[in-house]
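Review form for a predicted model. The reviewer records the input and the model, then writes brief findings.
Reviewer: anonymous (R2)
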Amino acid sequence: MTPYDDELAAAGLDPAAVLAQVRAALAEDLPAGDVTSEATISADALGTGVFAAREPGVVAGLGVAALVFHEVMGDTVTVSDRVPDGTRVATGDVVMRVAGPTRGLLTAERTALNYASHLSGVATATSHWVDALEGTRARVLDTRKTLPTYRALQKYAVRCGGGVNHRFSLSDRAMVKDNHVVAAGGVVPAYEAVRAAHPDLRVEVEVTDLDQLRELLAVGCTEILLDNMDSPTMAEAVRLTAGRATLEASGGLTIERAREVAETGVDFISVGALTHSVKVFDLGLDLSEG
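Model under review:
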């Protein structure tokens, strides 16, 4: 048990899994202790660290960062002035303070920043898409294009940025893509095979043209992905569907096209770049003695 278990659980995360990940990260960074801090800083030195945003954005992962300090320092660290994950911040805003033995603060610093900077980067990127789609019906979705072992945290950061999570794994929802369609002999045989095997699961099917869309609507498919279609074709897909299925736009979409695609009337826009190639958010930790 840690002081952050309830908070992590309320955020939709598994506290035990997050703790195990934090411990693995610290073990990676500290196979034999922090040799520099131990050599240069006296054991009784105390300090205060201020986490501040160096650019505007949305923060996420500050609870995980606080957990890192707790795991390194135990009850000797005090965490204060932590803003809630999902908060929009401006350049210079203080987002968290930590105080305690200076050695421990510096030992935990990089691992804590790695989590908070990366997850805030995901949240900030997501918020840019949310802003671009404002006033339309479309919502931005993440994908499974996540860093191995980071999926739960990255998808949490997407939620912090105002986005919506797509399926978490290959098991919780069926997603029929082009290779499945080829193997099954068409979109309808593929859809019907999944429905027969897993009648209680949601099934989404990818289409590349309007003929495939018509086939799926005729057999009652209610979740359809429009893959690599231009905007006029997507608008026609929305007209043909007439509310019978939710439509997700996907395939190389950029934020510059976000508004144009949303105005076709699609329900969702999925963006792998939210997690697979996001720019880290610029957070800094400034330390003072005493």
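Findings: Residues 102-133 form the longest helix (32 residues).
Further findings: The CA atoms of residues 6 and 117 lie 23 Å apart.
Recommendation: see findings above.
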